[in-house]
Specification:
The protein has 306 residues and is an alpha/beta fold. Helices cover 49% and strands 13% of the residues. The protein has 12 helices and 9 strands. NADP nicotinamide-adenine-dinucleotide phosphate (NAP) is lined by residues 12-17, 37-39, 42, 72-75, 77, 81, 98-100, 123-124, 127, 131-132, 232, 235.
């Protein structure tokens, strides 16, 4: 494959940035890749494992001359970092991000981007519970969706080029409006994470079930909650604070459904429970048929490349 961006800058060197780097290398779509991370420790690790062609000590240095700048940092700091790098951005270049929330990121980043530089917000719907520069792998985005946010003022050429780039990294790309994105993600990702956090917290609180029992018998369902609840606390704190409205709306609906199921259990309404579980089972089948998960009992994790 030919080079799409001569110079790419990755700001933040965690799971998503490191996966992007290895996927760029695999696809051969980037010339030189410069990287920056906030802490010296992360920069040192990146240099040691060969993550990026050049690891810089400042974000500004990393973005100088870059044709594509990717903000791979928690959503709560996107605006501040955009302000910091703005004076060093190359005219005609594109700035994008990978944040899990889109409206808030756009509202905070777009005003910082100078005239003549394009901003196209994005979100790869791929991740693991691991974080940091050593957690990335080239296959992370394969056959997963990346959503790019198109607005009235989005430059069509910059958008088309970024789409080609993500497709080269293995992703399927769809364009979406920012508010719709935040609602969809509240249903598919943000609320489920909160439920997992809650369930793991409840098990921890429930002193009648000893810790060792929780671990020993966790194969059924709970183990997957613990995996999700092990996700990065900073990232998820920011996601809930920055996608507040949509998450609260979905949690409101969730609570209503939970009450209805609770009532069905109390009143012995087996028909209600059976009909509900039949409906949800069909949704799971749909996900597997769409190629977004495997039917393996361990969800294919044992075979996932590292
Ligand atoms: P990560 O592995 O925790 O890495 C975050 C990176 O951001 C680290 O290099 C960190 O630097 C840097 N950083 C943190 N605070 C910063 C600040 N104030 N200024 C500058 N740099 C800072 O995170 P990730 O999982 O790659 O997530 C990055 C973004 O991708 C987030 O916006 C998240 O919402 C989004 N996302 C995540 C997933 C997922 O499943 N993980 C999926 C899709 C999208 P240090 O290492 O030096 O602290």
């Amino acid at each position: 494959m030919s080079v799409i961006y001569d110079r790419v800058a990755l700001i933040g060197l965690g799971l998503i940035a490191s996966s992007m780097f290895w996927a760029m290398r695999r696809a051969g779509v980037a010339g030189e890749v410069a990287g920056y991370a906030r802490s010296e420790a992360t920069r040192e690790t990146a240099r040691r494992i060969g993550l990026c062609d050049r690891v810089c000590d400042t974000a500004r240095e990393a973005v100088e001359g870059a044709d594509l700048v990717v903000l791979c940092i928690p959503v709560g700091v996107m605006g501040d970092v955009a302000r910091e790098i703005a004076p060093a951005l190359k005219p005609g270049s594109t700035v994008t991000d990978v944040g899990s929330v889109k409206r808030d990121v756009i509202d905070n980043v777009a005003p910082e981007i100078p005239d003549g530089v394009h901003f196209v917000a994005g979100h790869p719907l791929a991740g693991t519970e691991h974080s940091g520069p050593e957690s990335g792998f080239a296959e992370l985005f394969d056959n997963r969706w990346t959503l790019l946010i198109s607005a009235d003022d989005t430059d069509p050429q910059a958008l088309a080029k970024l789409r080609r780039f993500w497709e080269a990294l293995g992703a399927n790309v769809e364009e979406m409006d920012a508010d719709h994105h935040d609602l969809v993600l509240a249903v598919t990702s943000h609320a489920p994470h909160l439920i997992a956090y809650t369930m793991v917290g409840v098990a921890d609180d429930l002193r009648r079930v000893t810790d060792s029992e929780v671990i020993k018998y966790s194969a059924a369902g709970f183990r997957d909650f613990t995996r999700i609840a092990a996700s990065d606390p900073t990232m998820w704190r920011d996601v809930f604070l920055k996608n507040r409205e949509a998450t609260l709306e979905i949690l409101g609906r969730f609570t209503e459904e939970l009450f209805a199921l609770q009532r069905a259990i109390r009143t012995g309404d087996g028909d209600h429970l059976h009909a509900y579980f039949t409906r949800t089972r069909a949704i799971r089948r749909g996900i597997v048929e769409a190629g977004q998960d495997t039917d393996a009992p361990d969800f294919g994790r044992a075979n996932r490349p590292k």
